[in-house]
Structure formats: structure tokens, C-alpha cells
Amino acid sequence: MKNLPENHKGFSTLLAFCLIPLSGFATDIYLPSLPAMAKDLHVSAGAVQLSLVFFMFSLGVSQIFIGSILDSFGRFKISIASLAVFSATSFVIALVPDINVIYAMRIIQGIAIAFIVIAKRAYFVDLYSGAKLKSYISSFSIIWACAPIMAPFLGGYLEHSFGWRSNFYFLGGLSFLFLILELLYSGESLKYFHPFKLKTIAQTYTGMLKSGDFTLGILILAICFGLVVVYSLSSPFIVERVLGYSAITTGYSSLLSGLGVMTGGIIAKSLIHKPLAKKVTIAVTTQVILVLLMISTASVTSNIYTLIGFTMGINICGGFIFNNIYGYCLSRFSKNAGVASGLTGGGTYMISSILSYGFVNLYAVKSQLLLGFANISLIFIVGIVFMIFNRYRVLSLAKNPVK
């Protein structure tokens, strides 16, 4: 086993940060290409949207169970193999013009990405502690938000210049490059390997899921992420088919949407010591106001600027909420970092994939007005869940004052 050399720790940490947004790249880079894929593959919009849902659901389910594997068998070898699988499946998608093959490859990619991302999140808990670890964890959602900013923007240009398949050639090449760098500069970070005993693992999972604040926190994260995905699934068709713009414009709109998420994360990091209940309540209230304005003004003025403007505001608040709750959930069980990271990320992706696809189709989102209705429904659920979450959180703090 190759242990992480001390003199490579700095560059290896940088690589870990770079790999955390890979799931977002795999999700978002081909969003501007959804209409072109539907046309080229002779399938419906819903059929190509399903490729994203399959990936997210696979990624979510896998993360739930992967944490215990990584805590028992280590991070390095598994993440190396996963990078190789992800690279290979990306090239297969680019070469094979069959939607069913694409579905299968996206499911495999979801599993591979789950191993990579969970291993890299746990990497920080393996090597750092105290204020430094808390600072790194609070940076995760900001780093992750780089993908929704850069990926669709890049994907729009790739689609416009080379066609939708170029997105997957790019993913294959990028992951292969990371594979080489990991082999050269990274290594095993896990110091204490947990025995792989199903009974012990089951007890660990059960204990975490019985913690109301942790479980409800995951639900809040899923809905916040679901708001972003609802826009991601619907915006290519609104921007390109309804408003008549190109895939490049879709890329720009997704860039601004992702910038909103990142801005919210940065604000949350700067206010990390403020009371959680107060700041999240303000963020949810602001979201409600923005969505009501989005709905009420749709009949008067509805264009690319109002669509993106309201979405950015909603996503700033969503990114703010996500960062705060994400940090709370990820640091809730520090002794089982892999499992906690897996449950947090897995539950978020799995639930948000179902919610986002369900709400996009429930409201048949093809306009600013319908997007507003989908958003207000999700935000209303966030508000209710957060009130219950906060009660459990207060009880948890009373039992464990150190947290």
C-alpha cells in the first residue's frame, strides 16, 4: 500500500479539493446539450433528462454504503480504480449512440464518482483537525459550487463548437489526467482501519439515522440542491426552445446560477460563528420573497434577465443554507467520517434526484411562472423541515454541550 508521503501532502490536498467538484462536472457539463442530445438520439426531453436522474440516484444510493467500505479498506486504491472506470465510461458514452447504453454508463459513473468524492471528503478528516478541519469543511460547498459555474459554461461552448459528445470526451480526458496525478502525488491517508463487520456497520448507520437533526439536515440539503437541479433540468429547454437562445446562452445562465450558489456559500463561511437558527430563517424568508416576486411579475415581464436574476437570488440563499447545514451534518460524527460523509452526500443526491425530476414533470416547467411554482413548493418544505430540525439540534446540543 502506498502511504501518502509527507512532502506530497500539500499538493495531494490540492488534488483532493479539485476532485470534490468532479460530481458536479459530471452532472452539469452537458446540461446545455440536452436539447441537442434529444434531437440526435431521437428521444424525448424527458428521456435525456433521465440520464441525469439515473446518474444522481446512482451516486446517491452508492454514497450511503460506500463510507463503511472506505473506512475499512482505505481511500487510495479504491479512488484510483474509480477514476479509471469513470474515464473509460465517459469515452463509451461519447462513442455509442444509444440512450440505453448511456443510461447504463451513467449509473456506473454514479458509483465511481461516489467512491472518489467520499474518499476525498474523508481525506480531510483523516489528516486535519480542529479549526483547520472546520475551515476546510466549510469550503467544501464553495469548491463544489465551482462545477455549476464552470461546467455548463464550458459545456455550452463545447456543444456549440464540437457537438454534445465532446462533453464526454472532455470528462474522460480530465479524469484520466487526475488519475495520473493521483498516482504520482497522492497516497493512503487513512491511519486507523475499521474492521468490516456487517453488524457493527449496521449499528453505526442505525445510530446516525436515528439522530433527528442529522437525518432532517440531509433532507434540507437535498431540497436546497433540488432547487438548483430543477433549474438545471428545465433551463436548457426554456432558454433554447422557448426564448430562442443558443446552448452558449444556456451555459452562461447556468454559470450565473452556479455563481449564486457559490456566493451563498462564501457568505455562509464569513458568518460561520453566527447563530444557525437565525441566519437560516432569514435566508428561507428571503427565498420566499424572491419566489413570490418571480411568480407575480411573470405575467408582466418574463425574459432571460428576469429568469436568471430571480434564480441567482434564490440560489444565493440556497447556497447559504446548504453550506451551513452541510458543515453541521459532516462534522456531526467525526469518528466515522466516511460513513457520515457517505450518508450526507448520498442522501442529498438520492432525494434531490427524485424531488427535482418529480417537480419538473409535475409542473411541466417550461416558463418562469411554472419554475416559480416548483420553487415555492420546495422552499415551503424547507421551512417546515428546518423548524423540526432545529428542535432536534437544540436537544442534541443540550446532551452534548461540547458540539
Automatic annotation (TrEMBL):
UniProtKB keywords:
Membrane, Transmembrane, Transmembrane helix, Transport
Q: How does it sit in the membrane?
A: Multi-pass membrane protein
Q: Which residues cross the membrane?
A: 42-66, 78-96, 102-124, 136-155, 167-185, 214-233, 245-268, 280-298, 304-326, 338-363, 369-389
Q: Which Pfam families has this protein been placed in?
A: MFS_1 (PF07690)
Instruction: Give the Major facilitator superfamily (MFS) profile domain ranges.
Output: 12-395
In the UniProt record, the signal sequence range is none
* Compartment(s): Membrane
Q: Which InterPro entries match?
A: MFS, MFS_dom, MFS_trans_sf
The source's superkingdom equals: Bacteria
Q: What is this protein called?
A: MFS transporter
